[in-house]
From TrEMBL:
CDD domains: TOPRIM_recR (cd01025)
PROSITE patterns: RECR, TOPRIM
Protein name per Swiss-Prot or TrEMBL: Recombination protein RecR
Pfam families: RecR_C (PF21175), RecR_HhH (PF21176), RecR_ZnF (PF02132), Toprim_4 (PF13662)
Gene encoding the protein: recR
């Protein structure tokens, strides 16, 4: 590393700070950038320099977008009565792979994690409750799709209680909107999994969520 020119060394050290990038990979990427045609390198540099300036939150679901609304919220073919709550935009992208879901989303941008000093006010929970209050007559189901770890479960439980305690739930009851459901993603054995290697909680969730066959 010490034998590299300073300009190349700076690029390599920065790349090394990225998730999953070690020193050797950072060096290879730095040399790759050096070999790029000037036009490609300038285009890449401009994209990086304007990334934060151009990228903002969708005003409806807090997905990332360059417009007021993201393409999902603007899509008139989406089922606006179905909202899936996810922790991150990457989780949203997983749902969008393979056209398995046709509802809309709400991105929390995190989860409740006291060990890292992240509380309910640090993520987009109040924005979710406000949205539900404003659209209570249109919503039929809310899917809590936070991750199945301790923090994800705690976040899902907190949101569930906040929804039940909110005027959204009361307004729905007043309008006899009995179709509004709060659901959680099913857990259990993965496709191609082996029972021999499954842990206790995975097997318990698989038994609890078993379906008629």
């Amino acid at each position: 590393m010490n034998s590299l020119p300073n300009s190349l060394k700076k690029i390599s050290l920065f790349l090394e700070r990225l998730p999953g990038i070690g020193e050797k990979t950072a060096n290879r990427l730095a040399f790759y950038f050096l070999r790029l045609p000037d036009s490609d390198l300038k285009e890449f540099a401009e994209s990086i320099s304007t990334l934060k300036e151009k990228t903002k939150f969708c005003k409806e679901c807090y997905n990332l977008t360059e417009d007021t609304l993201c393409p999902i919220c603007m899509d008139q073919n989406r089922d606006k009565s179905l909202i899936t709550v996810v922790e991150t935009v990457l989780d949203l992208l997983s749902f969008e792979t393979g056209n398995i879901y046709n509802g809309i989303y709400h991105v929390l941008h995190g989860k409740i994690d006291p060990m890292n000093h992240i509380g309910p006010d640090d993520i987009k929970i109040s924005e979710l409750i406000s949205k539900l209050k404003a659209q209570n007559s249109k919503i039929k189901e809310i899917i809590l799709a936070t991750n199945p770890d301790m923090e994800g479960e705690a976040t899902a439980m907190y949101i569930k209680e906040k929804i039940k305690d909110s005027t959204f739930a009361k307004a729905s009851a007043d309008k006899q909107n009995s179709n509004v459901k709060i659901t959680r993603l099913a857990y259990g054995m993965p496709i191609g999994g082996n029972l021999e290697y499954a842990d206790y909680m995975t097997l318990k969730k698989a038994i609890d969520g078993r379906n008629k066959f």
